[in-house]
Amino acid sequence: VNHAALTALVDRWRPETHLFHLPCGEMTMTLEDMAMISGLPINGQAITGRVSAVNWRERTGNLIGVEPDLPLPGKADTSKVRHSWLKQVR
């Protein structure tokens, strides 16, 4: 990872437009960019269809090979996969 380049990109990201504002113009993230950053594969069939919170941990495990941990006692089960968790397990 080139930390200097990553820092430069973070400084130039504008969340209101979802673009990087660079001296040469504007640039947006592509699916390929996200695959390189996250290390997740993008080839194969897309995951689409009805979204349901039932058995979501099991379905996540079937799709990527790792099931998210159960929530801590007293915490709500949000039924979502965080990008930080994906980076940690991949």
From TrEMBL:
Record-level GO BP terms: meristem maintenance
Domain of life: Eukaryota
UniProt-listed InterPro entries: AminoTfrase-like_pln_mobile, MAIN-like
One Pfam family it belongs to: PMD
Segments forming domain Aminotransferase-like plant mobile: 2-88
Name of protein: Aminotransferase-like plant mobile domain-containing protein
Organism: Aegilops tauschii subsp. strangulata (Goatgrass)
